[in-house]
Design goal:
13-stranded antiparallel beta sheet, alpha+beta, single chain, 4 helices, 266 residues, outer membrane lipoprotein receptor (LolB), chain A
């Protein structure tokens, strides 16, 4: 009888331990982690000066310079403007993005000085490459939490840091149709809630691109940014490197800065 009791007790303790570990490990869902990440690292206004390096398959480097501006609105949406400042042949090229949220299309416009007109980016065109880089127009948008499902698939260490590994897939027919990605996989550091690696897969499950973020710096009160990011296209063996040269919080602009008129201003 005693043996039977102790055997049952051990089984109960084992089951309890397994349940407890599962509860601790997956205390938060993938969606909750993504939402907390967004909340933690938001700032009202930000301006960055960036050196971009385009690296081809043979290692040849072409440099570009650009400025990136972002504004967080009261309705929890954002507006962003990217403007190339050099070299001379692409100076003035820019992209304006207005986040719409939910399952709505973000508004995006492209300005190319040689054409002297602002062109709206159609929904189906957001999967296209941006100005010869390894980035697509959809990569320039804020993460749309309402248009994706997020599953916490595992936890693992990456370069010595414990990470959540979250798989993102389109949650709507619209996003499924218009995105160039069948899924993305994020490695998010547990301590900082910063995405340090992202894998992009097409709709057949083939790995397309790998993006990494490094040289993390704390701006203020637990808000972090990466001073260096790299996006590599696997098949083409090309790479786009973004190096932050300067960053300003609370710069002197407001919502009127994020207009098509200002986009086309050289």
């Amino acid at each position: 009888m005693h043996k039977k009791f102790y055997s049952c007790a051990r089984s109960f303790l084992l089951l309890t331990s397994v349940f407890f570990l599962a509860t601790v490990t997956y205390a938060k869902s993938g969606k909750e982690i993504m939402e907390e990440q967004k909340r933690r690292h938001q700032v009202a206004k930000e301006e960055t000066t960036v050196k971009m390096e385009l690296v081809n398959h043979s290692g040849r480097v072409k440099e570009r310079q650009l400025s990136i501006y972002s504004l967080q609105l009261a309705n929890d949406l954002s507006k962003g403007l990217i403007k190339f400042t050099g070299p001379a042949d692409i100076r003035g090229v820019g992209v304006l993005t207005w986040e719409q949220g939910q399952d709505q299309d973000d508004d995006q416009w492209l300005y190319i000085p040689a054409a002297r007109r602002v062109k709206r980016i159609a929904s189906g065109g957001k999967k296209n490459a941006f100005m010869g880089t390894d980035l697509a127009f959809e990569d320039l948008r804020p993460e749309n939490l309402a248009a994706h499902n997020y599953e916490l698939v595992k936890e693992e260490a990456l370069e010595g840091h414990d990470c959540y590994v979250i798989e993102a897939t389109p949650a709507t027919k619209k996003e499924t149709k218009e995105s160039g990605y069948g899924k993305r996989v994020f490695w998010i550091r547990k301590d900082l809630l910063v995405s340090v690696k992202t894998e992009f897969y097409n709709k057949r499950g083939t790995l397309l691109k790998i993006a990494t973020a490094s040289e993390l710096v704390e701006l203020q009160d637990g808000i972090y940014r990466a001073n260096r990011s790299e996006t590599q296209t696997v098949r083409a063996k090309t790479k786009t490197v973004m190096i932050i040269e300067d960053r300003t919080l609370q710069p002197d602009f407001d919502e009127s800065f994020f207009t098509q008129q200002n986009l086309s201003r050289n």
